[in-house]
Amino acid sequence: MNATYEDHLKTLSSEWNELLVRNGFDGALIAAGESSFYFEDDQSPTFHANPHFLRWSVFDECEHCVLVVNAESEPQLHWYTPADYWYLPTSIPKRLASNFDHQVHTTLEDLDRACKTAVQGNQRIAYIGPEPCAQLSLSNVEPAPEKLLNQLAFRRAFKTPFEIACMANATAIGVQGHLAAREAFFNNGCEFDIHLAYLKASKQVESQLPYPNIVGLNEHASTLHYQHYALSPPSTIRSLLIDAGAKYQSYHADITRSYARIEGNEYDELVSTVNDFQLQLISELPSFDTFLDFHVRAHQLVAQALVDCRVVKCSATATYDQQLTDVFYPHGTGHLLGLQTHDVGGHITDEIGNSVSPPERFPSLRLLRKISPNMVFTVEPGIYLIPILLKSVAGHPDINWSKVEELLPFGGVRIEDNVAVEEDGVLNLTRQAFQAAE
Ligand code: GLY
Ligand code: MN
Ligand code: MN
Questions:
Q1: For 61, 88, 250, 345, which has the most beta carbons within 10 A of its beta carbon?
Q2: Measuring from atom 4 of ligand 1, which residue has the nearest CA?
Q3: Is the distance from the beta carbon of residue 268 to the nearest atom of ligand 1 less than 6 Å?
Q4: Distance of alpha carbon 6 from its chain centroid, rounded?
């Protein structure tokens, strides 16, 4: 299969044409969106483009730009490059200029007028983007119905070869950051130092990250999305959990590693155990039909790991059946990955756009779909010592509380890889990138 951007566009064209026609639309107007100011302020968060737009442009400096997709003709790109001296305007990238029928507008009024002209003569146009939007006042433009959005989300989970290649590149960039972060950790860096080492080696400024880096030393590793960067190291450095990603042409990588400061100690044993069963889990992936089954298998392996590391005193089966694994492993085993770190569509189960909710036991499981070729998702099991959750099972006779006390100061372990499902196996983008870099 060809991994060029041009082939990616061909796939998108046929996918969109098919879904628009199926839903009774002549076309779609996709707005990249715009950032808005904080309340009573003239500052705004970093602009994140509408992923429907981004999937065509794969270039995220596209504020205000609009793509008109027509089931009968070529898509038309309306690029916005204002005459501005406060911020540097973004010219249309060469690749977009050469692949799209396009117009460049210097004012929003011109852009609005051009969009109106572009949809004239059409009966029904689906609008996909943030609201309010000037075009929605046109009689032939309506917000895209949920079914169409669900169907697009369902398809978006099947990545084109170009998209998978972008994610492989994003992973390789992230791995450069992870290697530098690991070095900073072993050189006694504080969370802030480790964060900066990551940014420098992966050549990203903070606003370019796919999600804020999670850099937790010691107990901080037990907060799943720990958001601070301590400016000085703790008096004793014991463990590091770093969850940090990267982007390549707008596609994300989402990678976690955990490290013990002292080789061979009880936390190091936990890291090795999680690492081993994470690899085992991935090797078993082809034998699973749905991600929910895969997640249950992850829980079984977590249960066995808790037995092996003497955290529980009962059998692995009893650990799972009593829901003790939920205490040590409260998040999902993975999620779709793409233009968003948590790519949409994980709960959409079919082409028609039907959706399901996660089962009661696993409310935070973001992916419930059948595992299918060309999906890219994370596999990110972990074992954590989370005081709030441990409190909920205080005094449980099957928990080895002295072992829990011993591990609490280390926070937790997560190992997260990004994998692409292939026809006859699994490609582990993360392990591949670490192997190439180390
Ligand atoms: N980095 C967020 C996550 O792993 O889902
Ligand atoms: Mn993840
Ligand atoms: Mn992550």
A1: 345
A2: 254
A3: no
A4: 24
Q: How far is the CA of 33 from the centre of ligand 1 (A)?
A: 24
Q: Are 126 and 148 in contact (CB under 8 A)?
A: yes
Q: Taking residues 285-309, report their average pLDDT.
A: 98
Mutational test site, ligand 1, from 378, 415, 417, max ligand atoms within 8 Å of CB: 378
Average pLDDT over residues 125-142: 91
With a 6 Å cutoff on the Cβ, whether 224 touches ligand 1 is no
Instruction: For residue 45, count other CB atoms closer than 10 A to its CB.
Output: 10
Question: Near ion ligand 2, which residues have CB within 5 Å?
Answer: 254, 378
pTM exceeds 0.90: yes
Rounded to whole angstroms, the Cα distance separating 396 from 324 reads 10
Q: Token pair of 184, please?
A: 């900073």
Contact present, 313 and 400 (Cβ < 8 Å)? yes
Ligand 1 in contact with 343 (CB < 6 A)?
A: no
As a whole number of angstroms, the distance between CA 148 and CA 158 comes to 16
- pLDDT exceeds 90 at position 73: no
Predicted pLDDT at 1: 63
What pLDDT score was predicted for residue 72?
83
What is the reported pLDDT for 71? 83
User: Percentage helix, strand, coil, to 5, in the chain?
Assistant: 40, 20, 40
CA distance 170 to 168: 5
CA dihedral 194, 196, 197, 203 (to 10 degrees): 140
Q: What is the mean pLDDT of residues 128-139?
A: 88
β partners of residue 377: 336, 419
Q: Which two tokens stand for residue 249?
A: 């042409």
**Model confidence over 361-387: pLDDT tens digits?**
999 999 999 999 999 999 999 999 999
pLDDT per position as a tens digit, 336-364: 999 999 999 999 999 999 999 999 999 99
Query: What distance in angstroms lies between residue 10's CA and the mean position of ligand 2's atoms?
Result: 29
Q: Is 380 in the pocket of ligand 1 (CB under 6 A)?
A: yes
